[in-house]
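Review box. Two proteins, two foldings.
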Amino acid sequence: HLGRLCVLLASYTRKTARLRDKADLLVVQLLHLSGCEGPELQLALRSLAQDLAAVQDYRQAQVERLESRVVAPLKAYGDIVRSKRSDLKRFSSDLSREMKELQKLEKVRLRNPADRQSIVSFTHTHTHTHTCTDMHTHTPLLPKTYSFKCELRRCYM
């Protein structure tokens, strides 16, 4: 839903900018036409061109505000969400890998419960792997999640 909103806002900004450009062309044409007319019409056309130029200045300010205050933060938010989503995906794959290894350990234990040596060697070889994985993915995930939630609160309050 947020992606559609970003697309619509960007489209609105582009269309407003195009409308501003067309109105600028109209102002130029009005000024050119005013040079060819009588003094009363010339004064009226120049006044219309100046008023239209003032409206376009406001429209330019609107476009700049939309780009700086709405579109740019939403783009940055999209990058943050993509990054966090990839972190979660990595965490999920590590978690599923650990679950599979625990299932393997359970199979080894059920297959031959008296063979303590194979169970101990299996757990010993995989303990180091789990410790390293935990240090790289699970431990930093909690602070990242907390900081992401704090960023969201700051943006929307």
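Next protein.
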Amino acid sequence: MQYFKVNDITSLDKSVSIFLIIKSIFLFSLISLLYGIVDYLFIHSSSDIVLYSEMSYWEKLLLGSLWAPIVEEFAYRYFLDFKVRSTKISISLLLSFLLIHTVGFFFSFGNYNYLLFVGYFLCIFLIVDKLIKQSFVDKWKDLFIYISVFGFGISHITNFSLDQLSIDKIPYVICYVLTISIIGYIMTVIRLKFGMRYNIALHFVLNFLLFV
């Protein structure tokens, strides 16, 4: 796929990168429109199915606008400098996310989930630290792009509970994942061409506008 390989993106001029981001935003707008139509036809109230609906306003603002942008960007895009240390951190965070959400489907630990997440990360990092070498990074670096885009989108299915993933809501969930994946692609291009601080800042702004 064009512009889904590391060399395709990193070889772009910055002006071309900005144009690619603008095209992605246009596609995001179209799918968001579809998302709204599907919400109207199938759901009628998307607020009923989001992860943060049971939290207070300040909890949503703190976790959604600060915790999520930093932790998710380090998980899904920190390794896009293709260095061993960064890759170890990102993969440890990704596996911690997978573990915490898998356990979360069956058990609820409330706010202790965040302490549990830190514990998972530290334990996994100790293992990953011994296993990942530069040869691994060089071999799989193009896969990192797909993880940064589609893994990021698919991971947001965890914003729904199991009983909310009913057959009648599948069109809504697909549109939801696509919109998040496009945001993931925009942030991936920004990360590769402009640096980590810019995609963290964009993620912060997007989430802040969502929860404010």
